[in-house]
Design goal:
two-stranded antiparallel sheet; mainly beta; single chain
């Protein structure tokens, strides 16, 4: 049987892969580059809502 290439689906307690992304920085009132590595050792909540540009 051929193995299917399913998309990655994070599970509880999975380690998040390191990445760089653009994010809105309210103190600077601008879009900035962030890296998950910058938050190593801190609690982080990753929130991703695709296909929508609504500020939450």
């Amino acid at each position: 049987m051929e193995e299917e290439n399913l998309p990655f689906c994070a599970q509880t307690n999975d380690v998040a892969p390191l990445f760089r992304a653009e994010a809105y920085e309210p103190n600077e009132k601008d879009i900035v580059q962030i890296s998950l590595e910058d938050y190593r050792g801190s609690w982080v909540i990753l929130f991703f809502y695709p296909s929508d540009f609504t500020f939450v």
